[in-house]
Amino acid sequence: MSNEVEEIKSKIEIVDFIQKYVPLKKAGINYAGLCPFHNEKSPSFMVNPERQSFKCFGCDEGGDVFNFVMKIEGLEFKEALKMLAEQTGVVLKPFGRDGRDAINRVSTDGVSKTRLYELNSFIARAWHQILLKHPSAQKARDYLARRHLTDQTIQEWQIGFAPPQEITRKLLNSKKFTYNEQTSAGNPSRLENRVVFPISDLIGKVVGFTGRIISENQDGPKYWNTPETTIFHKGKTIFGLDKAKREIRQKDQIILVEGQMDVIMLHQADFKFAVATSGTALSADHIKLLKRFSSNISVAFDQDAAGQKAAWRALEIAFAEDVVPEIIVTTAGQDPADMVTNDLEGWKKAFENRKSFIEWIIDQSIQDFGVVDGAAKKQVATKVLPWITRIINPVEKSHWIAELTSRIHVSEDSILEMIKHIPQESAPKTKTVTDKQTENNYDHSPEVLILGLLSRFPKLVHDDLKKYSQYFSPEYRISFDELLAWDQKKTFDQYLKNVSPQAHKTISEAHLLSSEQYASFTLEEAQAEVIILISRLKQLAREDLKTNYANKIAEAERLGQLNKVKELMNEFQNVILQK
């Protein structure tokens, strides 16, 4: 396989490839752009054509074209290998213990995945053309018009119309798809007389379909989904994720809804980060897949009994995967598709006013039980606390404990005492938070970048910067302090001769890095960048502080030291306000 990987890499010019995703500008020997993997205002994402590699000095992502594709497309290595092989015309040899490529593996009936992809792709295109042009699809076109789908949306989602079974079979037979292949694909002809929504995998290949009846008087179930096949695994497939993934990365936000029409109408209304499951309930694998793109998930399920049941199940699964979702409360009797069609401003307001699930359940519990007496307060706490105790991050947990005590007007001691009596199965053991788990782990790159910019633009060096020394890690603080002592009458080379060996090495490397990354920067641009980097550095210091207190609180909880937990919570709140 290594030879195939190298052959693929030899056929790809990484600058041209990445420019399909990220606008790049020449910056010395490199090309620079805004990183697609985290939000930033100044370019810290560099592509080196000589090494055929990329590196972000903001979030520390880096590697070759395979690393880039795996990260930006959310693919596993084998999926990225298959994708790039197809783009470059490289033929992959069989691999694996059974001698078969996992992507082209045959099913038990001898049908290859490649043939199933080809079949689905063909019939999706055929059904789409029938919807657009054939007289028999007029009722389907009328249905979509009533649902306010635009022509552009219909084309973008390749929505189709499945004619009677015999016509679909004739179409498939005309392209030499055998009966065995059609059966292995889930018998697409069974979707007859339905509006059809293709379901795609992460890289946009059609893996299955959902068919919806046009008339409520029509025979058969309202929805018919492709059953599980070699290429369609419902528990691991997210509808719309192939189209939403880039917007999700950009906004760091996901809207999770129940239905495919909800997804499509939200995208049409420019909420292009909406997704749904495909013909099955939400699973842990779904959440794990979504977390590859963002952990900020907002749930907008229908307000009917079935929708609320699905929402509670989704919340259970999300909590188990260390995701505390937000709730978008839709208008009673309307699903998200109805809301964006009939009351777009109402939907926008509902989205803007979304609440953390814990806040939502506190509101619901107070609404149900009130807080007029001790019995009512106990009912509220009994309803809410099992959810709070399931939060893995101790700092977040402590925040919601404080919020609950404030809302129902009781002491934290009483809440902490109740927590002791919650069964362990309702409150999984809290994980210790490490620096590897904190968000925005920049691997000290803000410090290196600041040192580099100051070394190249000595006019930016002044005493006012000394107050930021406290935010530098010991590894870089010495170099920062020595750089601030630079006698401006001396050149950079002269200055380096008089610093400590550690500072000499660190500042020299930072200077070289800055010469590449900020090659075209003016003094004014460098000054603005230093301000941004200092702000980032302060934020990282706050995150380190949170992590430190989180671990202390977790340890005190483990030992049952309730007074210590309360003391640490108060201390944390006071310290964080000063930062």
UniProtKB/TrEMBL annotation:
GO terms for biological process: DNA replication, synthesis of primer. GO terms for cellular component: cytoplasm; DNA-directed RNA polymerase complex; primosome complex. One of its GO terms (molecular function) is DNA binding. A zinc finger (CHC2-type) spans 35-59. Gene3D superfamilies: 3.40.1360.10, DNA primase, catalytic core, N-terminal domain, Zinc finger, CHC2-type domain. Its cofactor is Zn(2+). SMART domains: TOPRIM, ZnF_CHCC. InterPro entries: DNA_primase_core_N_sf (IPR037068), DNA_primase_DnaG (IPR006295), DNA_primase_Znf_CHC2 (IPR036977), DnaG_bac (IPR030846), DNAG_N (IPR013264), DnaG_primase (IPR050219), TOPRIM_DnaG_bac (IPR034151), TOPRIM_dom (IPR006171). Its EC number is 2.7.7.101. Residues 252-335 form the Toprim domain. The keyword Zinc applies. Keywords: DNA replication, DNA-binding, DNA-directed RNA polymerase, Magnesium, Metal-binding, Nucleotidyltransferase, Primosome, Transcription, Transferase, Zinc, Zinc-finger. Binds 1 zinc ion per monomer. It catalyses: ssDNA + n NTP = ssDNA/pppN(pN)n-1 hybrid + (n-1) diphosphate. Monomer. Interacts with DnaB. NCBIfam families: dnaG (TIGR01391). RNA polymerase that catalyzes the synthesis of short RNA molecules used as primers for DNA polymerase during DNA replication. Belongs to the DnaG primase family. Contains an N-terminal zinc-binding domain, a central core domain that contains the primase activity, and a C-terminal DnaB-binding domain. This is DNA primase. It comes from Berkelbacteria bacterium GW2011_GWA2_38_9. The gene is dnaG.
